[in-house]
Specification:
five-stranded antiparallel sheet, binds zinc ion, alpha+beta, HIT family, subunit A
């Protein structure tokens, strides 16, 4: 763990998160700036900066958790597909994004490409009560 790493602090419990799943090696929680409601992150508890640094067994474990979340999202939100991707843009602690896709361009940059680099803005945060509702729906039953 590094004190300066946001996701290490969430993994250790030093910072709060809307947790969806946790075991000794991984943690899934809601993204604070969701592309779509239900947008989740799955991280290793140990600090690995980039996804390609992950031991294969840990990467597989993260993917398995994302698959379970995706199946839950399809049931809850009636979406045809769920996106899974790593970008490493905001926090250099490997994290998989799991996003229910309500529109085929939810995780592409069609608007960004049309409007230019400077048009990009973080998606807004949702109210805490709504985040708690979403988290309780996505947790395994
Ligand atoms: Zn970290």
């Amino acid at each position: 763990m590094t004190d300066s790493c946001l996701f290490c602090r969430i993994a250790s419990g030093a910072l709060p998160a809307h947790k969806l799943y946790e075991d000794e090696a991984i943690l899934a929680f809601l993204d604070l700036h969701p592309i779509r409601a239900g947008h989740a992150l799955v991280i290793p508890k140990a600090h690995y900066p980039w996804f390609e640094d992950l031991p294969e067994t840990l990467a597989t474990r993260i993917t398995g958790c994302a698959q379970r979340l995706a199946r839950r999202m399809k049931t809850l939100y009636s979406v045809e597909r769920v996106a899974l991707f790593y970008t490493g843009i905001h926090v250099a602690h490997a994290h998989a994004h799991v996003v229910p896709m309500f529109h085929p361009h939810d995780v592409t940059s069609q608007a960004y490409m049309a409007e230019g680099v400077d048009s990009y803005a973080m998606p807004p945060q949702l109210p805490a009560a709504e985040m708690q509702d979403i988290a309780s729906q996505l947790r395994p039953t």
